[in-house]
Amino acid sequence: MIAQFWGNFLSTVFSHPLDSTLLVVACWPLIALACLLRPHSIRYVARFLFLVGALVCVAMFLLAGTFLISGHSPQVMTLPLGLPDLPFQVRLDALSAFFLLILGLGGAGISTFAAGYFRSGEGTAPGLLSLHYHLFLASMAVVMLADDAYLFMVAWETMALTSYFLVTSQHRIPEIRRAGFLYLLMAHIGAVCILLSFGVMQGGSCQFTFDAMRSASLAPFWATVAFTLALLGFGAKAGLVPMHVWLPEAHPAAPSPVSAMMSGLMLKTAIYGLLRVTFDLLHVQFWQWGIAVLTLGLFSALFGAIFAGVQTDMKRLLAYSSIENIGLIFTGLGLSILFAASNLRLFAALALAAALIHALNHSLFKSMLFLATGSVLHATRQRSLGKLGGLIRSMPCVAALALIGTLAIAGLPPLNGFVSEWLLLQSFLYTPQLPHAFINMLIPLGAASLALTVALAAYVMVKFYGVIFLGKPRETLLAQAHDANWLERIGLAWLAAGCIAIGVQPQLALHAAGKTTGMLVGQTIAPDPSVWRIAPIAPEQASYSGWIFLAVILCTIAVTFLLVRLLAHGRVRRTAPWDCGYPWQTSRMQDTAEGFGQPIRHMFGAFFRMERELPAPTDLTPRYRVHIEDRFWRALYRPIAAAVQRLADAVSFLQGGRLAIYLLFSFLTLLGLLVFVL
Amino acid sequence: MRGIALIWQFGEVILAIALAPLFSGWIAQCRAWMQNRSAPPLTQQYRMLRKLFNKDAALAEDASRLFRTTPYVLFGTMVLAAAIIPSVVTDLPFAHAADAIALIGLFATARVFQALAAMDIGTAFGTLGARREMMVGFLAEPAILMVFFNAFLLFGTTALTGLVDNYTTHPSVIDPSVVFAAIAFTMVLLAENARIPIDNPATHLELTMIHEAMVLEYSARHLALIEWASSLKLFNYACIGLALFLPWGIAIHGAHVGSVLIALFALLVKLAFCGAGLALIESVSAKLRIFRAPEFLAMAFLIAVLGLLVHLLLGANVNA
After folding, report:
1. Strand, coil or helix: what is A22?
2. Residue closest to B121 by CA, chosen among B201, B215, B199
3. Confidence of residue A2 (pLDDT cuts 50, 70, 90)
4. Which of A674, B32, B155, B223 has CB atoms 3.0–4.6 Å from B39's, for a disulfide?
5. How would residue B219 be classed by pLDDT, with cut points 50, 70 and 90?
């Protein structure tokens, strides 16, 4: 009886995917409102409502997953909301389902963690925080479901505003207010670009539905203008160099679950938007677009990896690493555009699948590492890498889970980061088939730059994990650090399980991404006949099997361990560290975060503006200080800021302070508009 | 059919595990001869392993579980690599687990684990070695990727077994880019395996050591496993090089016992020459300062890129 009810219920839910998805999305605003009932109660807001939010995320994940697997056709609906002539239109197709899947999967882990994370007395009241948090989640989902420019922009702006309030939840600290302002500014510059891009794409028809834009035929020039504006707008949200400056400021300022949401989930909405515009609305027309995206992506990736290498604040390091990963995703997109515009559909599908899977992977491991820094922050009150160390002994659980995230983000098999990076390198291998001789000679260098980036990421992650969790504690208080509570552990473990599952069984992700590539470029990578491995183009050319990796390594470890115990012995004697016989060792003798950055500062000096204070031999209180600055601030942003300031000064005579004059201005403007219209 | 393939697979892994210390011993012997020293016996490596396995492990007080697990992980990754690389036969069921690019990832896994373990105790030398090792790693990866890119352009595959199959069935493909790739690969091999001119496996001089600095805190069975894994890594790299550049003799699909024996003999001869060549390179070159390492590996990268360009330009000519 009950089983029958549930069977009917589930079949109804899954046969009306769009309705059920909208219902699930609507749950978040309801939770947000429920937060206002008792906004100061941590037990009610965090321990209860966040867990409900996590369940909603799981429902979203399941819905999106079944939609992708069952291969439904796109579903559209007009909502009875919005302006009289501009009703909200929603659409669920493979592209939005894939990103909703990311949202559900990542959101579930983050919400569970957040349920254990928030404490009372930290900045904004927990109820308000939770209100913004759940509205933020809902607005991201609506961005992915929107089928007209109007609803898209409304959701996009809601997303920017709610995340602004989340970033500035500790608004009493001036740096955090500054970071929040910078974030809001960049978000709006991006939003204006996106709005203009939609304006160009409607092509004079004044129809703002995506359907109209799909069928509008734009002149090549206007199509390129629309694409460039979209690239700028979505690039600003994604943190593509040179629009990346807000990212390393905003991510450290926000509470850790919020950083995880922004880095893991919000950056993906920009990827979604660019995919929607480029592939779905503009139908990939010119291969030059691909070159632009590819170049920006490769440069961002390398830039992010290099800057992450020299950071001394753990959250800033992760923020730069986000820039790197976004760069990798854009690299895949660029290759895909290049292939698709040259009508090499299969390779386009490969590159696109690599980009999509990397987006999914990044949402898992980056969220997880940001959350782990949250646990560290709560346990130690330290964000600076120079004051951490040795936490693997006092926080074994977080350290073990963070190790999985670290290995995954470093792109190591058999975890998930490796899969997408491997697919990306594979798609680079087919670039010599492009019909542009000169480009063909340059693109292998792109592959080399990609390999350098990936290897640098491994370096950065060894630094991140080694300095925080390994070695001796650099401060005496660290020995008393406590491990994370069980809600935090479940959140981390959920994300870690995702990293392992996709790494070992990448067919899952490849299958999900295949539906999206089928929709966007009309091709899917043929599934390998064997379920144990993936072979993107043909098994004779290249294949990878996470199962064999894991099984052989684990079996060898087990057999070796048993053999060593059986044939030799397992005796252990605990002594002081050897260290070449130096008797006097302190925790200060370990490499610091600065020390770990030294080879990178040495080799990639051209990327930085560096200020250094070195001690002289005669100094009684020797002091070493190194300050790294982003060149883009001085070369790009300060001149722009100064120009805006000058312009504002020039027109400031308008602001005389007299009401009559202002009314006169309004009148003149109205008059001008009337003349213009008539 | 699959049964016999599994037997070859298993046999090849055992062969690699057994031969790896011998290969390192052979290189040490050749080096001693070339430097006019009296050479240690070929079995010196095995004796050292036996001695280490029988000693009591001295472990630093605050060593974590990561530190104790890492030697086993290193050994496991290198055994897996040996299972994938076609050194004697190409009919290997596990070879489909990874192509050459995934193999780079596998070696990177080993490297990251070793670096993390080196940082675990928190000694000055351990962290220094970890940093340098990771630095050599990120410099070497672009170069070796270019080598594999070149191989892909020539033979249309990055699966090592596929490369060997294609090479031996179409021996007419001889391309100048192979020479460039071989030089670049040798340079990477030296750097990745902590040989002169990047690192010196024979000293514990503080200022220069990389690999030895990372394993300073290990002793007894842990050290034995790490040393064994290092010699396996060198053996694996040599076998990748042989599969890429000198694949003659390797028994391809459908091989019978006779051709496998020939392949085994060919492997021994090739390894002997290869080891002597490595010893020669190491004897005639000097150890570089650590900050010359980028130049060395940048040169390897440029040579590989040159090879690639040579191939693309020649290909463009042929097509035109």
Report:
1. helix
2. B215
3. confident
4. B32
5. confident
Which pTM was predicted?
A: 0.93
3-class DSSP state for residue A594? Answer: helix
Q: Does A386 touch chain B (CB under 8 A)?
A: no
Q: Which residue of B has its CA nearest to A419?
A: B102
DSSP 8-state code for residue A436: -
- Kindly report the nearest CA distance between residue B117 and chain A, in angstroms: 8
Are residues A452 and B112, on separate chains, in Cβ contact within 8 Å? no
- Polymer length in residues for chain B: 320
Residues A454, A455, A457: CA angle, nearest 5 degrees: 65
Radius of gyration from C-alpha coordinates of chain B: 20
* Contact at CB, A539 and B141, closer than 8 angstroms: no
Chain A residues with beta carbon closer than 8 angstroms to that of B90:
none
pLDDT tens-digit readout, B82-121 = 999 988 888 888 888 888 999 999 999 999 999 999 999 8
- Interchain pair A432, B312: CB under 8 A: yes
For B78, which residue in chain A has the nearest alpha carbon? A553
Compare B75 and A72 and report the one with higher pLDDT. B75
Percentage of residues in chain B with pLDDT exceeding 70?
95
Whether residue B318 is predicted with pLDDT greater than 60 in this model: the reply is no
Whether residue B249 contacts residue B263, with contact meaning beta carbons closer than 8 Å, is answered with yes
Cβ of B66 within 8 Å of Cβ of A426? The answer is no
Chain A residues close to B59, C-beta within 8 Å: 572-575
Higher pLDDT, B305 or A569: B305
Chosen for mutation from A541, A556, A574 (greatest number of chain B CBs closer than 10 Å) is A556
Q: What is the DSSP string of chain B?
A: -HHHHHHHHHHHHHHHHHHHHHHHHHHHHHHHHHTT-PPPPTTHHHHHHHHHHHSPEEEETT--HHHHHHHHHHHHHHHHHHHHS-SSBS--GGGGG--HHHHHHHHHHHHHHHHHHHHHS--HHHHHHHHHHHHHHHHHHHHHHHHHHHHHHHHS---HHHHHHHHHH-TT---HHHHHHHHHHHHHHHHHTT-TTT--TT---TTT-SHHHHTTT--HHHHHHHHHHHHHHHHHHHHHHHHHH--TT-B-SS--HHHHHHHHHHHHHHHHHHHHHHHHHHHHSPPPPGGGHHHHHHHHHHHHHHHHHHHHHHHHHHH-
Q: Which two tokens stand for residue A358?
A: 């990397």
| Tens digits of residue pLDDT in A417-432 | 999 999 999 999 888 8
Mark yes or no for CB contact B127/A455 under 8 Å.
no
Report the alpha-carbon distance of residue A37 to residue A80 in Å, rounded: 28
Q: What is chain A's mean pLDDT, rounded?
A: 89
Q: Where are the beta strands (DSSP E) in A576-624?
A: 608-613
B119·A390 Cβ contact <8 A = no
How high is the pLDDT of residue B319? 44
Nearest in space to B94 (alpha carbons), one of B11, B210, B25? B11
A403 vs B313: which has the higher pLDDT: A403
Q: With bands split at pLDDT 50, 70 and 90, how would you rate the model's confidence at A45? A: confident
Asked if the model's pLDDT at residue B315 lies above 80, the reply is: no
Residues on chain A touching B66 (C-beta within 8 angstroms): 392, 403, 470
**Chain A residue closest to B297 (CA)?**
A452
Chain A 582-611, CB below 8 Å of chain B: which residues?
582, 585, 587, 589-591, 595-596, 598-599, 602-603
Gap from A517 CA to chain B (nearest CA, Å): 24
Q: What does residue A609 show for φ and ψ, rounded to 5 degrees?
A: -110, 120
Residue B60 and residue A447: Cβ atoms within 8 Å? no
Tokens at B314, concatenated? 């020649």
ipTM of the complex: 0.93
Which of these ranges, A232-236, A331-335, A570-574, has the smallest mean pLDDT?
A570-574
Q: What is the pLDDT of residue B173?
A: 59
